[in-house]
Amino acid sequence: MTDEQAPVIELPDFDTLADLLVEEGLLTLSPAELHGLLCGQVAAGARFDPVTLFARIGELLDLEPFSRELTRTGIMQLYLATLQQLQAPDFSFELVLPDDDQPLAGRADALGLWCSGFLSGFGLQERKGSQGLSIEGQETLRDLAQIVQITTAADAEAEEDENDLMEVQEYVRMAALLVFSECNEPDGQPSDAAAETAPVLH
C-alpha cells in the first residue's frame, strides 16, 4: 500500500464531448445522456477495460463502433474520470452538463437526459449478490425518474427558475453518489470481487 494519490483525471466537458460525438456522426446523442449512462453502470458496480467499455456503450445505445481514436480516447477518459470522482471521499463528483451561460431550457433538457441515461445504465447492469437498494435508494431512483420529465419554458430565465434548476441539479449529483455508495464497497470497488479492474488511460 502507498499513501501516494493517483493523478487526477480531468473530466471532459460537455462541449468537448459534443464535438467528438458530432465528428462520429452521432448528432442525436447528448453528452449528458452518455455520461448519465456511464454513471449508472458504474454506480451499479460495472468496471470496464477499453474493449468492454465501447462494446457496452454500443450495446446499450445501439451504436456502431466508434471509428475515431480521438473519440475512443475521450470516452475512455470520461469513464476513468467518472469512476475516480465517484470513488473520491470529497464528493467532488460532477455532472457533464452544458455551461451555466447556456439557455436555461437547454440545460434543463440535458439534466433530464442525464437522469434518463443514469436510470438506463443502472437498470441494465446486472448486480451480483442479494444486496438491494435501501428504501432511501429506491426513492432516489423514483425521484430521478420524475426529473427525467423536467421541462422549462423556452423564455424562462428568471433568477427563481435558475435557482430551482441548480437545486435539482445538486439533488441529482448527490443522488448518484448515494446510489453508488449503496452498491459499492467503501474502497470504491463493486461488491462483486470478480469485477474488472479499471485500466490506465494512456
TrEMBL record:
SUPFAM superfamilies: YgfB-like. One of its GO terms (cellular component) is cytosol. Pfam families: UPF0149. InterPro entries: YgfB-like, YgfB-like_sf. Coiled coil: none annotated. Transmembrane segments: none annotated. Belongs to the UPF0149 family. This is Uncharacterized protein. It comes from Marinobacterium iners DSM 11526.
